[in-house]
Please model this.
Amino acid sequence: MLRFSGAGVSDVGLVRASNEDSGFVAPYVALVADGVGGAAAGEIASATAAYAVAAIALQRPGVDAVRVVTEAFAAARDNVRLGVQRDLNRLGMATTLTVVVTDGRTVVLGHVGDSRAYLLRAGELRQITTDHTYVQHLVETGRLSDQERATHPWRNVVLRSVDGDPEGSGLDTTRLDVRIGDRLMLCSDGLTDLVDDARIAAVLRAQDPEEAAAELTAAALGAGGKDNVTCVVVDVIDGPRVVGDGRLLGAVSDPRNVVDAAAIRLA
Model:
């Protein structure tokens, strides 16, 4: 039976006053959410989305992973919308979301925004998400080279996110071709803006998941730490079903940041 074994780190960085990133690591789900920079209450958006996705995934062990990811995204979107409705000062809040879920047979990736997922197999690193950014659009339409991407002044303008809009573009959902022994890394752009793929690959090849997440976060801080940094590293393993709630990272570890429709109905 497929499951994940790994760890994660979320750090406020060296410039920001607070951490607007959230993460979660558990045997059957791992995720990163990054409150969209410049928007109101980014920490509320990321924590709310991360909590909703984690809760849905933990409640549905063994359920088809595509269905879990789809339901989890819907819950995240609805709770972010509720968070705005309950406090209009949060108008405009949004978050990226990159999540992997396994039902024990397959692994499914859900993605929106500019956080990223990578796959390391046999020492080779491959990015398995596409950034939903204006700069990525320029690259895909031939108006910008890959080399110019890193220095473009609009490189962090996100075109798609979890923003509570039921008419929004939604989540990219992909069944991943994974094998036992593959390693997955999910991260916010606070890592990839400062640490290149070659360094990421070298660390992922050499360290266990906990050490790799810590070393990559330290590398981003050493390169300036201008943004929050969240890094989750998990290995795909074969093993018996286990029970575990997982580990909360970043903004979602503070319950005051979470808007949960189910808890509000019970209050």
Remarks:
- DSSP finds eight helices and eleven strands in the chain.
- The first strand starts at residue 2 and ends at 11.
